[in-house]
Amino acid sequence: MRGPRAALALLLAAALAPRPARPHPQCLDFKPPFRPPRGLAFCRRYGEFGCCDPSRDSALLQRFYSLSASLDERTYAACSGHLQELLCQECSPYAAHLYDAEDPSTPVRTIPGLCQDYCTQLWHSCRSIFRALSADPELTALENNAAKFCRYLSLEDTDYCFPHLLANQHLNQNLGLVTADAEGCLQLCLTEVANGLRNPVAMVHANDGTHRFFIAEQVGLVWAYLPDGSRLEKPFLNISEAVLTSPWEGDERGFLCIVFHPKFKFNGKVYVYYSVEVNFEERIRISEFRISPTDMNALDHGSERIILEIEEPASNHNGGELLFGDDEYLYIFTGDGGMAGDPFGTFGNAQNKSALLGKVLRIDVNNNDRGPLYRIPPDNPFVSDPAARPEVYAYGVRNMWRCSFDRGDPHTKEGKGRLFCGDVGQNKYEEVDIVEKGKNYGWRAREGFSCYDKKLCTNSSLDDVLPIYAYPHKMGKSVTGGYVYRGCESPNLNGLYIFGDFMSGRLMSLKEDRATGEWQYSEICMGTGQTCMFPGLINNYYQYIISFAEDEAGELYFLSTGVPSATAPNGVVYKVVDTSRTAPPGKCQVEPSPVKVKSKRIPFVPKEKFIMKTPPPRPRLQPTTEAPWGGVPGPGRAPRPGKGPEEEKGQRRQKKKKKQGPGNGAVRLMRQGRRGRGRGRLEVFIDGEWGTVCDDGWGLPAAAVVCRQLGFPRAVRAAKKAEFGEGSSLRILLDDVQCSGQERTLLECSHAGVGTHNCKHEEDAGVVCSREEVTDR
């Protein structure tokens, strides 16, 4: 029995052994550390990374001179080095820990926390410097008792005590680099910027020095936000009566984009992209508006001029991006016309250069007050081709959703002008492209790296441009293009292309290997443990990722919602933050130009909360820029608009991190092996897996909560006894669910506990929801 007892003793010892501290660099102002703009003269140890800029370093040097003046020659020779080290701990990347500033129940220390052996040494040789450093009466009262004195100066978390902290490999390894978990997932944090939005599809700035930002809702309203985060009560634009959309989840029609003319500050012109119905015919419309002559925060609604209209043969694949390039030309990104597989004509719209659908268009809207509304740039690639529309800049695209121009490296301008796009796939792959003039991006011959139409693929040109990255549908089914980060506040992110997936809720990134030209993939996770434990930061988001955005200073944002309906006010805007390293104080400060405000200001009130939990390990995918294999959606996977014959305008898969409770809390309805339209067996997503719910206690209040999560205004019936089939391939995750009907998600209701149940799949619960009485809130 000696062997098992010894093994048990080792296990107990391991369980009881203190775990190493989680690295959490933090300054005394509770902000992340940074790299000073230039070296430090006094606290040189922290000249590469820490919490002091040169002005603070100079102040500490002056204090050192002041304190050392009171020391006799012998004490100065023996103790001045220790005095310098203690003063400079304010510059340590772990200053908040050293001075116990994280604990609000205790006052901030006047002397950093010291390790027992070092404190004892100082007490014997340099005790007098403590009285110079601190006027703390309790410390003075203990100065004749070494044990009590050093106990008073100790830290509860001994990993952070000085000077052992300096040699702690766990805390200093990769200090100042983007934090990654054990599986390589980059851990970032968020700041909530705006909320209560109805499917926020775009966020843009005017590039006029005011640092305002403008958020567009799918229903046709655009709101102006001031630099202090407040929203103006009067909409910047309201064309909701003209915009064609609906409350149905997944409807791709609506107000899709807005962009400001590069010379907006001088000409006041703004361009919008939206869906309309004209004589029972659906179209996409590109219009020009001018700023109101009496209000700089509102457009003149009577100034609309229709620049371009294109007939849409179907209700999906509407494209929806407008951008101005450095050339000051307007780029328009259209979808292939909808349905599935681009069935229009012999080769589809995307390969037909005489059609405007499935294209990147480029037109000149400058100086258009007289003459034609737009002109053709003389260097457009097909101006001399009589069989092509001269507006075409690039072709062979399926449904590019969110594109961006790279601002270029802040110092070298490397990469400036590259045009990145996410192109939504059909049945197997999503892709990211760099768009270049005159190039063919392969649809419908190719989808990602693979052949879609085998006949076209066999005969397609070898000059077709392949994606820089493609991923299979087991990772996500609707790419949302993003931006190359070129902001100031998070320097470690410079050059990282950050994008996402609407359906799976994944945040992802690509980094170019300059030596090979290949793009390396890293997934982005929300920071766990203490990574995001800074004031104002959160680590969770609604995961229907609709769009990405840059502000005027180049900082990165994304827009997402919990209910993908044009009338559901669940949209939130998040700013991306890297806490591993920030810019030095003052470097990123902006001075917005004054804004004359006539409308009432509505102060921003954040609603999202930080979640302190360590998620369980989950299966990882290791995609590359090579053609991925497999990835065909299996039965029961959520369909989405634009995904082939089986597509529905239903809800996309949600992977929402719960703000309360033990897991994510997303819900879906399944019926006969596929997604149900408003009725079906209930499945809930918790801690990385889908599961079913038992019908014990299941009633109409619980059904109402589920229907509201799915965007339906009311529940007709709570289904029991596996009315919509048994989910026998899944675990039963919830039982004894009791709701009042007012909860935001099912997990806010009382239940027996995740995975705890006394039922079988023949008792799987379901719901029947209704869209009647939908109100436009």
Task: Characterise the protein shown here.
The protein has 777 residues and is of the alpha+beta class. It is 13% helix and 25% strand. It has 12 helices and 35 strands. It has an 8-stranded mixed beta sheet with strand order 21-22-23-24-1-27-26-25, with no helix packed on it. Strands 29, 30, 31, 32, 33, 34 and 35 form a 7-stranded mixed beta sheet that branches. β11 and β12 form a beta hairpin. The longest helix has 15 residues, at 2-16. The N and C termini lie far apart (71 Å). Residues 1-21 and 614-663 have low confidence and may be disordered.
Secondary structure: elements and pairs:
Layout: H1 2-16, H2 54-68, H3 73-87, H4 95-98, H5 116-125, H6 128-133, H7 137-141, H8 146-152, H9 169-172, E1 186-197, E2 200-205, E3 213-217, E4 221-225, E5 231-232, E6 237-238, E7 255-260, H10 264-267, E8 269-278, E9 281-291, E10 299-311, E11 321-324, E12 330-333, E13 359-363, E14 392-395, E15 400-405, E16 419-423, E17 429-435, E18 446-447, E19 450-451, H11 454-459, E20 469-472, E21 479-484, E22 497-501, E23 507-512, E24 519-526, E25 544-550, E26 556-561, E27 571-577, E28 601-602, E29 666-671, E30 674-675, E31 679-686, E32 689-693, H12 700-709, E33 714-719, E34 731-734, E35 766-770
Parallel strand pairs: 1-24, 32-34
Antiparallel strand pairs: 1-27, 2-3, 3-4, 4-6, 5-28, 7-8, 8-9, 9-10, 11-12, 12-13, 13-14, 15-16, 16-17, 17-20, 18-19, 21-22, 22-23, 23-24, 25-26, 26-27, 29-30, 29-31, 31-32, 31-35, 33-35
Helix pairs in contact: 2-3, 5-8
Family: Belongs to the HHIP family.
Keywords: Disulfide bond, Glycoprotein, Secreted, Signal
Main location: secreted
